[in-house]
Every structure is written in C-alpha cells, then in structure tokens.
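Dear colleague,

Thank you for sharing your sequence with our group. We've completed the structure prediction you requested, and as agreed, I am returning the results in plain text so they can be pasted directly into your records. Please verify that the sequence below matches your submission; if there's any discrepancy, let me know and we will rerun it promptly.
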Amino acid sequence: MKKLLLTSVFGLCCFLAFGQTLTQNINNRLLQKNDLTGRVLSLSLNDFDFSRLFMHTDNSVIYGFIGDNYQRIRIKFITVTKNQSSPDVYMVHGKSMVKNNICEFKGSITISNIKKYKTISYGVDDSYKNKGIKGQYVILGNYNFSEYETQAHSGIFKGVFQSNLYLDKNNKVHYDDIDDISDGYANNQYLGQWISYKGNIIKRCNWGDFRIPNSGDLDIGAGEFSPADKYLKFGWQSVRDLMASQHNKNAQKIEDARWWE
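Please find the predicted structure tokens below.
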C-alpha cells in the first residue's frame, strides 16, 4: 500500500540527520520508487491551497510521542494559513500537550517537493473508481514550531513531514483517505525532534494521523495503532481502554477532550 510505503520510508531515515539533510534523504528514497513521477512542485504550489490537508483529521486519532520512553504528546493545529507571498510556506498556530502541561506554539510548514503517483488507487472494491480522481500526490517538506518561551517546559519542534492528497476532476484538493480501511493506513506524518530553549535537552518527537512514523516498539498494532503494554503508563492507557471497549466513557472523554480550547 502507498501509505505503508511512505511510513517505511520514514522508518529507514537516520534520526541524527535533520533539516535539509534529512529532507533530501527522504526525497532521494522517493525518487527511487518506480510508482512516482518527477517533481511537480512549481505548478502545484502556485495553483493550490493545502492548508485544509494539514488540519483534516480529528485530534482523537492524531498520535504522537516525545522522548525515548515514548511519552505521549498531543499536537493540535488550530489554524494553518498559506503565505500568499511565499506559496511554499504555511503559517501554523497550535498547541501541544504532554501530561497536563499545555504549550501554545507558532511556526511554519515549508513544502520542498511534491510528487505524483503514476497509478491511482481506487480503494476497496474500486469504490472510488467513478469519483473523477485525476491523481494522487505526496508532499514533502520541513516544519519548525516555536512554543512560547514564557511557558513551562517549552522549546522548539523541528523536522520533516509527509502528507498525501488527491485531486478530483475539478482540481479540488482532498485529504487522501482512499485506503483508510487498509492495514497500516497513515497520513500527515511528522518526524523530528523537540529542543529546549536552553539547548540542553533534545528529544525525539514524532506524530501523525492514525499511526506514528518511526515509533519503534511502541506501536504493536497490525491493522491500527495499538500501544505496547510497557508504555501504557506514559499516557497511553486511555487509548488501550477505548480499544478494549468503545463503551468506556472515561477513556472516551479523555480522547475526545478539546484540551486546546
């Protein structure tokens, strides 16, 4: 599956390289994939607004971790706005939450590359066959978000991301959920690090829609995200409880909470 392919691409990347080096590493790996066409960056950036793509998914299924113990972190984009003077840049305002500590942040997403798949996936039983899909694409780029320095335990998020979309016959941008019932489905994958303002603390920090890139032995799920037992105490218990019973009201309340408001 395409989504599994891109998740594995992130998993193969060396965590020690960031910024331009890591982005180029990912780009080079994608260039070697036979099912992707050449670069289509210049046309797409000028003609389309991808802001809704980055905000599409409900926060209850955006999973993330920070640090080597896979402590849960929740990331919420509150607004994403295209920079009209720099069409490759999107301005982001959001919040992060680790345990009960909530920090507000601002920053940017910068698109470095867009590629098109040579063939179109029409989903299970070709359910999208007659939907007028013109093409599926993958976006690559960098992100840099700065938490407000006056807040407790604040720092900077930086790294690379990958998002998937498709265009319909009217050139409308859609979040690519065509294969969302397939095992391992994921989108909006962010891989990077969190750096304290003093620079003396650097932690791995990855998140994404439905699955987390490069999540080691945290995710033991086959079809969908499932946290391993030994990490439940690091913020994942409510996820496990809800998976065990959809009628667990306490777990549902935790996962559905609009904590950023």
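Summary note from our side: The chain is about 20% helix and 40% strand.

Kind regards,
the structure core
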